[in-house]
Every structure is written in C-alpha cells, then in structure tokens.
Amino acid sequence: MDIKSGTLYIVSTPIGNLNDITNRAIEILNKVEICAAEDTRNSIKLFNAFDINTKLTSYHKFSEKSKTTGLIKYLLNGKDVALISDAGTPLISDPGKYLVNKAIEEGIEIVPIPGVSSVITALSISGFNLYNFKFFGFLPRKKAEREERILEICTSGITSVVFESGKRIERLLQEISKILPENVPILIAREMTKIHETYYRGNVINIIKQLNSSEHGTKGEFVLVVSAYQKPFQEGLSDEDMRIMDILFNALPQKEALFLASKILKKKRNFLYKIKIDNN
C-alpha cells in the first residue's frame, strides 16, 4: 500500500513582536512532526512562548543542501514538516529554496501559512508609489555587481526595497547619495516591531545625519525603501551619464552594457554605442 506523502508547510513567524504570530501558525507548528528552523536557538524562544513542543532541527544556508534529503524522506514517509526562518516569511533572503524545489519535484503538497514580512511592512508605511516595486534583498559584495544594483535602484523608476545590516547601512547610503537626486525621498525602517523600532524619513543626506545623531546609531537590522525615481530624458550625456556608461562597460559584455545603459539613461542603443566609440 502506497504511503500518502506528508505536507510541507512554509510558516511565517513574527519579525520582532511575538504577538504578531497567527493562530494558524501556532496550530500548524504544533501539528507537524518536525520543524526545520534557520537558527534553533532563536526559534526555541518562540516555541517556549507559545508552548509548542514540536521537534526542531537546524536548517540554515550552510546546511540546507545536506538537510534537504532527510526532510524529504520524512515527507515521503507521510510525516508533515514545517519550515520557518529566524523572522518573517521563509525564503525571502532566507534558506528554503532547495527544500521547496525538491518537494515540487517529488509531488509533495506545499502549503504557505502567511504572516509578517518585513518587506511589505516597510512598504506599507512608506507613502511611496506601490503599484510596482522591486525587492533586492542584501546587495552583492562584489564591486561591479553592487554598483550595477545601486544604479538600478536609483534610476529604474520603481520603488525599491533593500535589506542591510547596521554595520553596513551608512556605507550603502553614502553610495546611493552619489547617484540619487537630493529631492528623492527614502525611508529607513530599523528593528521593526521590536522595542526600539525607529523610522527615518527624508533624503539620503538628511537620513545619514539622523542616524549619526540617533541614540541607537546603526545598531540592528535595517530595511531601506527608495522612492521611485526616473531620470528625465536629456539630449546629450552628462558627466554622470558617462560615469554610468563606464561602469556598465567595465562590468558587462558590450551588448548587455548597451542594453542596460539604454534602459537607465533613456537613450537609444545606437546613440550610446556611437558616443562610446567616439570616446575610446
């Protein structure tokens, strides 16, 4: 007799305030045979607060590939499994991709248990255009890739959301300030729903000053929301345009660089190609 596979539950947990957990999340976490958690030391606090006695197993970015096989075996043997991250909705800049993809391959039922997301929480109070937005997660460390992302954030015409740690938030703001016009507003959300949650609004330079003068400084986790800004069409290319062109051509193959430059600068590719050739 074939055993019916268990269900994989993707369970959202609070991003700070434990009272934000849903009744359904508590019910599911109590029901499953095992819960895969990004950091069991963090998750045990949540479990203790709500008397959840389900077994926890670690499932982080360094172990997700190796742990996936065992969790899939649990599921194929008819046992239900939950996946949670340290905070918020799993898989949003957190582990889980390998497990979900393998479950899809095996035909295992996957059920989301929705709840808090720091991305949506920050966007909801930004006051910016939210008909379209783009989530970048944590930006790359490599210089060329990082510069490309920052260019897109500052010129794409779409509201952008970025994660950053306290150690690197000021550096990121300094980088953005070199491209983003002073009149474009941004929002910094710090430690959302926690005891010392703080919100900073204004332009980039103003917010750097606010952070430096704050009693909390740059401690904690940050979500940056940049309002949509689209560079107006111009006949020629400014020094800044040429700088952007140089970055793209140094980082990418010519065809890709031309395509991206055309999108960012609102110029035809033939026009940009001619300028690039003339300046070589």
List its salient traits.
Cobalt-precorrin-4 Transmethylase, domain 1, Methyltransferase, Cobalt-precorrin-4 Transmethylase, Domain 2, single chain, 11 helices, 280 residues, alpha/beta, five-stranded parallel β-sheet
Output the structural class: alpha/beta
Distance between the termini: 72 Å
The CATH class label of the largest domain is Alpha Beta
Identify the CATH homologous superfamily of the largest domain: Tetrapyrrole methylase, N-terminal domain
What would the CATH topology of the largest domain be? Cobalt-precorrin-4 Transmethylase, domain 1
Helix content: 40-55%
Radius of gyration: 22 Å
CATH architecture of the largest domain: 3-Layer(aba) Sandwich
- In the residues, how many domains can be counted? 3
Shape summary:
globular
Largest sheet: 5 strands, parallel
SS summary, helix count: 11
Strand element count: 10
Strand content: 15-25%
Query: pLDDT average, as an integer?
Result: 91
Instruction: List the strand order in the largest sheet.
Output: 3-2-4-1-5
List the helices and strands and how they pair.
Blueprint (H helix, E strand, L loop, with lengths): L6 E5 L11 H9 L2 E4 L2 H10 L5 E4 L5 H13 L4 E4 L12 H9 L3 E5 L4 H7 L8 E6 L4 H13 L3 E7 L3 H9 L8 E5 L7 E5 L1 H10 L7 E6 L12 H13 L2 H12 L3 H10 L2
Parallel strand pairs: 1-4, 1-5, 2-3, 2-4, 6-7
Antiparallel strand pairs: 7-10, 8-9, 8-10
